[in-house]
Amino acid sequence: MAKGTKGHAVIAGAGIGGLTAAVALHRAGWRVTVCERAAGPSAAGAGIVLAPNALRAFEAIGFGTGTWAGDAVAPAMGTRNTDGRPLMRADTDALAARYGRPPLAVHRAALSAALADALPADALCYGTRVTGVDHADPAGRVGGAGRADEAPRTGATAGRRPVVRTSAGDLTADVVLAADGIHSPLRRLFFPTHPGLRYSGETAWRTVVPGEGLAPAEAGETWGRGMRFGVVPLADGRVYVYATARVPEGTRPADPKAELARRFGTWHAPLPALLDRIDPAALLQHDLYDLAAPLPRYHHGRIAWLGDAAHAMTPNLGQGGCQAIEDAVVLAHLLDAAPDPQAVPAALARYTAARHPRTNAILVRSRRAGTVAGLTHPLAVALRDAALRATPARAAHRALDGLYGGFRLPPAAA
């Protein structure tokens, strides 16, 4: 089938998951329209570590990193205490040997730009907000939006093409992908009885600082009492830094850089030097949330949810963006196998079956990891640190098998 003739996919959101889905579907022969409420691409943001599972997913759609990210890799993330003494070491070479490739750390803006460059010029519609989705039958009669937390009604939406309501006008699609983020309006619209997000008890600051003139930084996290500081050298020579602290929801210091210096300025080198390089204007702060309960499913008729819209998780395992990439590649794989547009709902049901168990297991695992990392009682922290020091490197690597080695493309048909 010629390019662009398999159907029309409308994607709400131009984040990593939405753009990956767009690239994967475009390469599979779909016409894609990505609606992004922001006025244009942004150079702001922070880093992302593409773990081996995400890189394997990119390889499945022929999206190589070498042309835009170079050959630099992210050293494996070790863990230290506030004095700089190792609690747990990780070996990049061992990870590469075990999973076929090492992690890669890049700026999110660079990844987004590379994905956008792989799309037709007219595929991205910035300044366009998706306000709702209705179903329309082939004759054009529009039906109600329906609710995804209700049991799907056989035949109720399977034959109807969705009409996507946007701030720029209506679009008719064969499939709609909700990649509209952690506060997903489409999730709230179609799952009105779902409890929504749960505050983790932590806030996070993130930014990227220049790396020139510094000794090569070692990737890793430093754990204190209820606080963490992360350092990740990026492929372009800059350094991605982030910090977390247990604070009441909505806490916003008047001087964020001074707050970080107060909390982390006495920790081991090179953290004070990295703190000095922070540009307050480029410093992001977000409270950390995850989904309070799993969605009952990731699809409804011809609509599918992916990434944070489907399974928002805390960043403790570094898998939020990686799971969005997996979602997008699996969705495109299953939609590519659909023999005609009428088979789209069945393909989306297979998507839920393939992704729901894995993503929700990782969500829970990330939540538990955050609880351990965020301990505040001195005795609990001492016991945690002793347990980390006593864990053999081989056991630590085995614990990553379910994350880094767990990506598989499901069978394309039932």
Task: Considering the chains and any ligands shown, give keywords for the structure.
single chain; six-stranded mixed beta sheet; globular; 14 helices; 414 residues; alpha/beta; FAD/NAD(P)-binding domain
Number of strands: 19
- The overall average pLDDT, rounded, is 90
CATH superfamily of the domain at 8-42 and 119-196 and 293-372: FAD/NAD(P)-binding domain
Q: What is the multimeric organization of the chains shown?
A: single chain
SSE-based structural type: alpha/beta
- CATH class term of the domain at 8-42 and 119-196 and 293-372: Alpha Beta
Distance between the termini: 22 Å
Number of helices: 14
Largest sheet: 7 strands, mixed
Fraction of residues in H or I helices = 25-40%
The CATH architecture name of the domain at 8-42 and 119-196 and 293-372 reads 3-Layer(bba) Sandwich
User: Judging from the principal axes of the Cα atoms, what is the shape?
Assistant: globular
Return Rg in Å.
22 Å
How do the strands of the widest beta sheet line up side by side?
5-4-14-15-16-13-17
What percent strand?
A: 15-25%
Spans of at least 5 consecutive residues whose pLDDT stays below 50 are: 136-144, 153-157
The CATH topology of the domain at 8-42 and 119-196 and 293-372 turns out to be FAD/NAD(P)-binding domain
